[in-house]
What we know:
Elements: H1 13-29, H2 34-39, H3 41-91, H4 96-102
Amino acid sequence: MSKFKNKQRGISILGVLFLTVVIILVLSYFNISIKAVVESPAGQENVEYVKGGTKNLWTEYLQEPATYLWNDIWLEIFWRPFLDNMRRIQEGLPTDLDNAAENLKVRQ
């Protein structure tokens, strides 16, 4: 039991979905219409403000690092070699791991 005491846990996707359903049910219990709130002028103004802030956050701060991570890290280092090795397996050719094993020296 002691090994579980220090574990930090986050919320899962199911937890988020469950929390969303509970919030909707609580709002319904108090007769609060989400549609009416969102369609009101104040709601529309808030949605536009958040949308503008989110778009600004993406273009000013997140777009360049996210694009770098996607194109130069994920695609180049992981995805393309994976596809190449899957093609080699399908064609019966040696994979990168097979080719690297030939040069591997094991100390006894």
